[in-house]
Specification:
By secondary structure, the chain is an alpha+beta fold. The protein has helices spanning 16-26, 30-62, 153-212, 216-221, 224-266, 268-275, 278-315, 317-322, 326-378, 384-426, 486-493, 516-521, 537-542, 550-559, 562-567, 586-599, 616-629, 665-671, 674-690, and strands at residues 69-71, 83-86, 89-93, 106-112, 115-120, 129-133, 136-141, 144-150, 447-455, 461-470, 475-480, 501-506, 509-510, 523-526, 535-536, 576-577, 604-608, 634-638, 650-655, 658-663. The protein has an 8-stranded antiparallel beta sheet with strand order 2-3-1-4-5-8-7-6, covered by helices on one side. Bound molecules: uridine 5'-triphosphate and magnesium ion (MG). Uridine 5'-triphosphate (UTP) binds at residues 220, 456, 462, 480, 482-488, 528. It is found in: Cell membrane.
């Protein structure tokens, strides 16, 4: 493990403090989210209504013929009651009467072998059998024989006209509810995703702009891959939390509570029977949660390892290939990949047990319902519709429980992700703009180091008590061995880092007292390792500055001789370069960077080994150009080849972070010190090189 993504392995408990902070991001969309919750209540109500309607259809209409009819004298019929005329009698369904008139005859419709009969005098519950006794159709109920009249289809239709009507009405309501549910659900999902995506959009913006303004030493400590994950993966995890957990938690709660309440009100004992499996669910969920968490952590650990290995190997592919390390690296990857596979399989196993187990419990609850409710339906103590509704409600009851585990995982990783995101957001850059910045115009270009001490890390001094002054318009060269601290001096002038002790003044103003943008706008730097962005050549010179027109680009390119190689490209200035400029040679990249630095017409120009990668001919051309462009500009040149710095107004010789010598080429040679030694060495090298 190379510590690349180690921070992703930490497991975070659900922390209220973090949670509150996450809610803060949702605040601009709070109204929307509350609205979504309301919509979800409508959806839940629709879900709850469906079994209820089916139950009404079953009990109120489809099975309604079982309700007895009473023969009521015409003048006793309550207004609005539905009546059926049959054999010059008027029958009213008993459920329409608040009170049965005393002495009224009961009738009941009985179905046998697909035929319907009206049985007279049949009042109580129980079964009758239709028989033919002496050529007459009768209904036998135990010892009793009752009169039975076969109903022809027309008559049956009349008896059931009202049920058919009612069923049609219920079906319409059912369909209507389905459509309303669909529409409301659509709006809710859309709005919720809208809110979620916007929260994440803003969060990504915030993270990126925060990273953008971070001091450079932050990037020394935080690998690219990690920061990329912050902006992409971690925010996506949060999106999932906002959209599928936060609001849907309410829905699940509504649904569970709603089902319990509706079931309790429908039939308390049945509800108890159905819910008696709840403790099993609770225990299973707790066990599962623990197992799943462990498995999940393992998977995260392995994927982090894959990420680290991949990003390192892909970045270093060239080295791998040069040293024929492919097979070895493949074996390494193969092992890590297999570990990841195994971890994933283990996680799947946990899920593979939990889901079917919940199914088992669900079917158990169904058997309980049928065992308890079935006989009661037969005995007429429970309506068939109610039994049906319970079966349906239990199905709905298990849905959110099934998802519970997943939501818990999302919540868990959201906590970890947000903690990491906040860690980035909470890291303040120590390099800040002053609260009351000194207004600076165009620099004259005077640079002064006053007793500057600097270390990248702790007391590991890279620059020790460095003092020097560059007059406006002067060209100063920094020379010294590798690691002497030359590039560090440049980093300090640009204020990529702050000095530990001492002061850096530009035009007599401490650079910490001016805005970073004011300072950097006037400094043009050609760095040791040129970075190009993906885009065309023009874009890489202009860098979004619209004030630099195409003519200016051509002009600076001609100055720096970049023009010549650009013209050889098929698309000239519109030639695409890939990220890091892989399609250009090192020298071409350097020329381009040179043009880029000049395009901004900086008051201070800094060239860090700018000529190290170009051939002698190009270098001499650049030297020519330099003479033109350094006029009226302070220039700092860093070069290993002393031949390129001979004409500098001043040469500063750095040795192990200290200034050892300072003067013109001639003065330094006369001194016969370090510079002289370096010069002799290179001189000899050149001589032997040409021999
Ligand atoms: P410099 O990068 O200033 O050296 O590093 P230099 O003079 O330009 O060297 P060349 O000629 O380009 O090779 C000075 C010291 O600062 C340390 C390096 O280890 C070196 O010893 N350093 C540099 C850091 O600790 N962190 C950095 O990010 C860069
Ligand atoms: Mg350097």
């Amino acid at each position: 493990m190379n510590g690349f993504h180690e921070d992703e392995l930490q497991e975070k408990p659900i922390d209220l403090h973090i949670f509150r902070r996450l809610l803060k991001y949702a605040r601009p969309y709070a109204a929307l989210m509350v609205f979504c919750i309301l919509l979800l209540m409508v959806v839940t109500a629709a879900d709850l209504a469906q079994p209820y309607i089916v139950r009404s259809a079953l009990d109120g209409y489809i099975n309604a013929f079982k309700i007895p009819y009473l023969e009521v004298p015409r003048d006793k019929i309550p207004p609005g009651a539905h009546t059926v005329s049959w054999h010059d009698k008027t029958l009213v369904r008993s459920s329409d009467l608040s009170q049965a008139p005393p002495g009224a005859t009961h009738y009941r419709i009985v179905e046998q072998h697909g035929k319907y009969y009206l049985v007279q005098g049949f009042a109580e519950n129980g079964n009758v059998i239709i028989e033919t006794v002496d050529g007459e159709i009768v209904a036998r109920q135990g010892e009793k024989l009752l009169k039975a009249f076969p109903l022809d289809p027309d008559e049956l239709k009349r008896f059931r006209a009202r049920d058919v009507e009612g069923l049609t009405r219920l079906s319409l309501i059912f369909v209507l509810i389905l459509f309303i549910r669909f529409a409301v659900n659509y709006v809710q999902v859309y709005l919720l995703q809208y809110a979620g995506q916007n929260i994440i959009l803003n969060l990504r913006k915030e993270i990126f702009s925060h990273i953008e303004n971070m001091h450079l030493s932050y990037f020394d400590k935080n690998p690219v891959g990690r920061l990329v994950t912050r902006v992409t993966n971690d925010t996506e995890t949060l999106n999932e939390m906002y959209t599928s957990v936060l609001v849907n938690l309410f829905k699940d709660l509504f649904l569970l509570l709603g089902i319990i309440i509706v079931m309790m009100r429908m039939n308390f004992r049945m509800a108890i029977a159905a819910l008696s499996v709840a403790p099993i669910i609770a225990v299973a969920t707790v066990i599962f949660r623990n197992k799943a968490r462990e498995a999940y952590r393992e998977v995260r650990k392995k994927i982090a390892r894959i990420n680290a290995t991949l990003s390192e190997n892909i970045t270093g592919m060239k080295v791998i290939q040069i040293f024929n390390r492919e097979a070895k690296k493949f074996a390494e990857f193969d092992r890590i990949n297999r570990e990841y596979y195994l971890a994933t399989m283990r996680e799947l196993q946990v899920f593979a047990v939990f889901r079917p187990f919940l199914d088992l419990v669900y079917y158990l609850s169904l058997s309980l319902l049928i065992w308890y409710g079935g006989p009661r339906v037969i005995r007429g103590m429970l309506s068939f519709g109610t039994l049906y509704a319970f079966v349906h409600y239990m199905g709905q009851f298990f849905q959110p429980i099934n998802d519970l585990a997943e939501k818990f995982n999302i919540l868990q990783s959201a906590m970890a992700s947000s903690e990491r995101i906040f860690q980035v957001l909470d890291t303040e850059s120590p390099i800040k703009d002053p609260s009351d910045p000194v207004a600076v115009g165009r620099f004259r270009g005077e640079i002064e180091f006053r007793n500057v001490w600097f270390a990248y890390e702790g007391e590991d001094w890279v620059l020790k008590d460095v003092s020097f002054k560059v007059e406006p318009g002067e060209t100063v060269a920094l020379v010294g061995a590798t690691g002497a601290g030359k590039t560090s001096i440049i980093n300090l002038i640009c204020r990529f880092y702050d000095v530990n002790r001492g002061q850096i003044l530009v035009d007599g103003v401490d650079i910490r007292d001016m805005r970073q943008s004011d300072l950097r706008r006037q400094i043009g730097v050609v760095q040791q390792d040129v970075f190009l962005f993906s885009g065309d050549i023009k874009y890489n010179i202009r860098l979004n500055d619209t004030e630099i027109d195409d003519e200016k680009i051509r002009e600076v390119a001609r100055y720096t001789n970049a023009h010549r190689f650009i013209e050889t490209k098929p698309n000239k200035y519109d030639e695409e370069v890939t990220e890091r400029g892989g399609t250009l040679s090192a020298g071409q990249r350097q020329l381009l960077a040179f043009a880029r630095a000049l395009a901004f017409d900086p008051a201070i120009l800094i060239l860090d080994e700018a000529t190290s990668a170009v051939d002698t001919e190009t270098e001499s051309l650049i030297q020519d150009a330099l003479e033109k462009i350094t006029r009226g500009r302070t220039t700092i040149i860093i070069a290993h080849r002393l031949s390129t710095v001979q004409h500098a107004d001043k040469i500063i010789v750095l040795h192990k972070g200290r200034i050892r010598e300072c003067g013109t080429h001639e003065e330094l040679l006369e001194k016969r010190g370090l510079y002289y030694k370096l010069y002799l060495l290179q001189f000899k090298e050149n001589r032997s090189g040409t021999n």
